[in-house]
Amino acid sequence: MYQKQAGTMHTVPPAVPEYVVFCGDTVRFDTEEKHERMDRELMAFTYMQTTSTLMLKRSLRYFTQVLPIMKETGVPEDFKYLMVIESNLDPAAVSVTGAAGLWQFTRATAQDYGLEVNTEVDERFNIAKETEAACRYLLRAYAKYGDWISVAASYNCGTGGMSRRMDEQRQASFFDLLLPEETTRYVYRILAAKMLFENPFAFGFDVVERYPRIQHRVVTVSEPIPSLVDFAGKYGVSYAALKRANLWLRSDHLTNKSGKTYSIIIP
For residue range 104-127, what is the model confidence (pLDDT) as tens digits? Predict the structure, then answer.
């Protein structure tokens, strides 16, 4: 049963804290620029009330799916907030540039990290697969930079763009680099997102309700599926329900000429 939501209380953003700990590193807002940049993002989360409320409600459903994968691969838990600012915890999100899914991979980057993307299957919408790919990216970037803040920034501007600016400006720290405004805001938004999810009350949100994960079972298939409508009927669910539970199935059939094994959720 869903719990009653108490609603929002006030619209005063929290004060900029002295510091935030991200992936074990302490980020201090000890300059005017850092203070004002963080203040901007705290105001943004406070005043975009509908989006912030929806993200808080969705958090249980999606965090419980990604955190075990992150833990298994050794990616710090705080990187779940990267997913928050990338997609607002909407698994069907598609950006104006064509990036897709909770982790917002472009087609090219997704394929570089082993995700299948074509007219029938798009694993950017497969939560487990895309999370595994995101973890591979984050670990590869950490091996290059050695600090998680730079890794977070590189997720926005790419490791190529991040490394080039480090070399050109002869700086190793994100906070000493002149980066595109979007990338600079990106890191502060992750820090503000962590504050929001750890203490929504401070932002004026008293959101009690959290959407649960949909109950399901999983079947594996290695053969073609000529009709997903028939396939859904075989398992006693509607085609619409099957597709909503498996956003990565992009057509009404699955040719699967290679005999690949797929895991399909039956809600």
Answer: 999 999 999 999 999 999 999 999
Token output for 221: 């298939």
**What sign does the CA torsion over 128, 78, 186, 48 have?**
positive
The residues spanned by each domain of the chain are 7-206, 217-266
Strands 7-8 and 205-206: antiparallel
202 contacts: CB under 8 Å, gap ≥ 6: 14, 195
175: left (phi over 0), alpha (psi -120 to 50) or beta: alpha
How distant is the alpha carbon of residue 233 from its chain centre?
32
pTM of the model as a whole:
0.91
% of the chain exceeding 90 in pLDDT: 93
CATH code of 7-206, in short, is 1.10.530.10
Q: Kindly indicate the confidence band of residue 3, based on its pLDDT and cuts at 50, 70 and 90.
A: very low
